[in-house]
Amino acid sequence: MEKSLRIAELFRHEKDVLGKTVSVQGWVRTRRESKAGISFIELNDGSCLRNLQVIARTDHPDFAHILPQISNGCSLLIAGAITASPGKEQSVELQAERIKIYGLSDPATYPLQKKRHSFEFLRQISHLRSRTNTMGAVTRVRNRLSYAIHQYFQERGFFYIHTPIITASDCEGAGEVFRVTTLKPDSRLQGDGENVYRNDFFGKPTYLTVSGQLQAEIYALALGQVYTFGPTFRSENSNTSRHLAEFWMVEPEMAFCDLEDNLKTGESLIKALLEVVFSECGDDLAFFNRFIEPSLSDGLERILKEPMEVLPYSEAIRLLQKSGESFEFPIQWGSDLQAEHERCLTERLFKGAVALIDYPRDIKPFYMRVNDDEKTVAAMDILVPRIGEIIGGSQREERLDVLLDQMRLKGIPEEEYRWYIELRQYGSVPHSGFGLGLERMVQCVTGLGNIREVIPFPRTPGHAEF
After folding, report:
1. What is the CATH number of the domain that holds 149?
2. Which of 122, 357, 393, 462 is the most exposed place for a label (fewest CB within 10 A)?
3. Is 198 a member of any domain?
4. Domain total for the chain?
């Protein structure tokens, strides 16, 4: 293939390429004819938000049969000289000297016209929605955030480990897991309980992972600081704007780390990611400010520059009860916070990021460290405006006797978690960790309200295209 210049690189080095002949490749966003015998082609290759304006003269001897074929969605190679643009919308433009059509696009049936389409409509044509400005911007931001996550941990001495996607552990104990099996449906109805799985591929019940945390603990208790970053799966039948069946999590796990250290790492990570977005995703962020959420940058600036409010769960319950808000879900000590409660705290009471700590023991998983009051655990949730919970974590229970008591209280079978128990028998240390949902982080920095818009291929109840 002919070597060409990415449009983002062209704009980045436009002073260096001014007056030079270059070639670019991409897809046509629009084409219009002028009375002056010029065809204006807006070309985009996905590398940036901006289109490159191409000037093609209709009297060019090679263009007479080519230009009438070009319509929205066509893929082209265009070569020509970069010149200064007299227009206000762009600083440079390309004077076409050669045009090659890779693929035509039928204007009568091409669904992406020059207008704003609803997100619901775009989900019906998911194979084409990546060509829109919004989804292109989301993809670039998501890409940069993913890279920044690795940068953050690598620069701080963490080791990246790959925890299993197929696991025998239900980390959360919630039962909302996808079972992995090679048994035929009718064969699972036979046998004596779980023993039927002795004939399954792994010889025991296995699931798609809901978290890599427990496995990450194994390596944290050998290497000190580790993180895992990959897909997780939950079969919760929630067809809402906040839930996906498949989503991506980054989960650091740190030995010799208490809840306070854990909180500092979580806050530091969020702020580091916001700094990257502000410094390297300016055009896309400006797009989201203009078309998605006008107050987006102001809100992100507050999270970045202001210290995070930290308060115990009990204090949060008290503030919510006296807030005067009328909640759909009544709030009382011992109940889990709902999205409306989280948004009240972040958007109305504190107007910024809030970290809640010391949740009731009864509503949290078995592995969280029990506090001295024996009623609460050393858990933490970091909440941000519009999104609610963006990080959830805890100090892990390192004391063998307390862990065993927790497992008994919550009905966790000791034999299935023998390996987890042995981590407390052989050189146990205080350790902590958390999970940050990538999709919620992307929502935070783009202002998009529906989580389906921030993942390339959303998996929700009744929907698994591609």
Report:
1. 3.30.930.10
2. 462
3. no
4. 2
Same domain, 38 and 138: no
96-108 exposure pattern, b = at least 16 Cβ within 10 A, e = fewer: bbebeeeeebeee
Q: What is the per-residue DSSP string for 119-131? A: HHHHHHTTTTGGG
Closest of 102, 129, 111 to residue 26, by C-alpha: 102
- DSSP assignment string, 181-239: --S-GGGGGSSSGGGGGGGSSSSS-EEE-S-SHHHHHHHHHHHSEEEEEEEEE------
Nearest partner of 365 among 186, 155, 217, judged by Cα = 217
Same domain for 35 and 155: no
> Buried b vs exposed e over 204-227: b needs ≥16 C-beta within 10 Å?
ebbbbbbbbbbbbbbbbbeebbbb
Could you give the angle at which helices 259-280 and 438-446 cross, rounded to 10 degrees?
Answer: 50
Dist CA 387 CA 349 (whole Å): 15
What's the confidence (pLDDT) of residue 180?
Answer: 92
Supply the pLDDT for residue 88: 82
pLDDT < 70 stretches in the chain: 1, 170-175, 186-195
Is there a single domain that holds both residue 255 and residue 311? Answer: yes
Residues 6+ apart with CB under 8 A from 129: 122, 123, 135
- CA 318 remoteness from chain centre: 32
Does the pTM of the predicted model rise above 0.90? yes
299: in domain: yes
In this structure, is residue 182 part of a structural domain? no
pLDDT of residue 188: 54
Per residue in 53-63, pLDDT (tens digit) is 999 999 999 99
pLDDT value of residue 194: 56
pLDDT at 3: 83
Pairing label, strands 309-312, 354-360: parallel
Domain presence at residue 344:
yes
Q: Which amino acid is at 286?
A: A
Range of the domain at 282: 130-174+210-454
Of 114, 143, 159, the residue that ends a domain is 114
